[in-house]
Specification:
Length: 111
């Protein structure tokens, strides 16, 4: 599954959670900077839009990696579910139906 996102198979769930948090922070920072420049009357340019697009794609890729991650044990299963629940509460978002199906089908550890 990780090959779909160009990421190494050896990447851990912890590392991807950290990467996802960093991507969310980068999105927040890009939007804040863009808003500050607009409020100051500066003309926003394509650079800000491209920066936002780049970090948004990184966020999506890491989120999908986590959604599709198959835990190796119960601890990882709980970690994945806890992180996704915290992410959804914090963003007041939701998962697409296919993402929810993936979470439900891949949360059970592989025996």
């Amino acid at each position: 599954m990780t090959e779909d996102f160009g990421m190494e198979a050896a990447v851990s769930l912890d590392a991807m959670i950290e990467r996802h948090i960093a991507a969310l922070s980068a999105i927040s920072e890009a939007v804040r900077e863009w808003d500050e420049r607009r409020a100051a009357g500066d003309v926003t340019n394509v650079v800000y839009a491209n920066a936002l697009l780049k970090v948004t794609k990184e966020e999506e890729a890491t989120r999908l990696w986590i959604v599709n991650y198959r835990p190796c044990n119960d601890q990882q299963g709980w970690q994945k579910l806890t992180y996704l629940a915290a992410y959804l509460f914090a963003t007041r978002g939701s998962l697409k139906p296919e993402e929810m199906d993936a979470v439900l089908s891949m949360t059970e550890p592989v025996e």
